[in-house]
Amino acid sequence: MTVTFRSDNFDAFFDAPFVAYGPDSVYVSPMKSDLKRFLAPSNPLFIKDSQLAFFTAHKDGRVLASRL
Q1: Do 54 and 7 meet the contact criterion of CB atoms below 8 Å apart?
Q2: Quick one: pLDDT at residue 68?
Q3: Cα(14)–Cα(2) distance, integer angstroms
Q4: How far apart are CA 54 and CA 10, in angstroms?
Q5: H helices of 1-68, where?
Q6: Helix, strand or coil for residue 44?
Q7: What is the pLDDT of residue 66?
Q8: What Rg value do the Cα atoms of the chain yield, rounded?
Q9: Total-model pTM
Q10: Going by DSSP bridges, is the β-strand pair 55-59/62-63 parallel, antiparallel, or unpaired?
């Protein structure tokens, strides 16, 4: 049971909070399209030529999230 880290997997990145908080949480997710647009390189909030990377941890093909 090895934990692997992946980058640039937007779907896993979007799903991670749902795994972390669980189905009974009051967490309200941004819309997937809004998050994708916010993280796009064309977003004027990012410095020109900046790079963004997001990572997710996976175990047995599923996104991991620690629960406090």
Answers
A1: yes
A2: 40
A3: 22
A4: 8
A5: 10-21, 32-38
A6: coil
A7: 55
A8: 14
A9: 0.75
A10: antiparallel
Distance of CA 51 to the CA centre of its chain: 16
Q: Is 49 exposed, middle or buried (0-12, 13-18, 19+ CB in 10 A)?
A: exposed
What does pLDDT average to in each consecutive run of 10 residues of the chain (68 residues)? 86 89 89 90 82 86 70
**Token output for 32:** 């997937």
Q: Is the dihedral of CA 26, 31, 32, 36 positive or negative?
A: negative
Hey, which bits of the chain come out as E strands? Answer: 3-7, 55-59, 62-63
Strand partners, 6: 56
Measured in residues, the chain has a length of: 68
CB atoms within 10 A of CB 26: 5
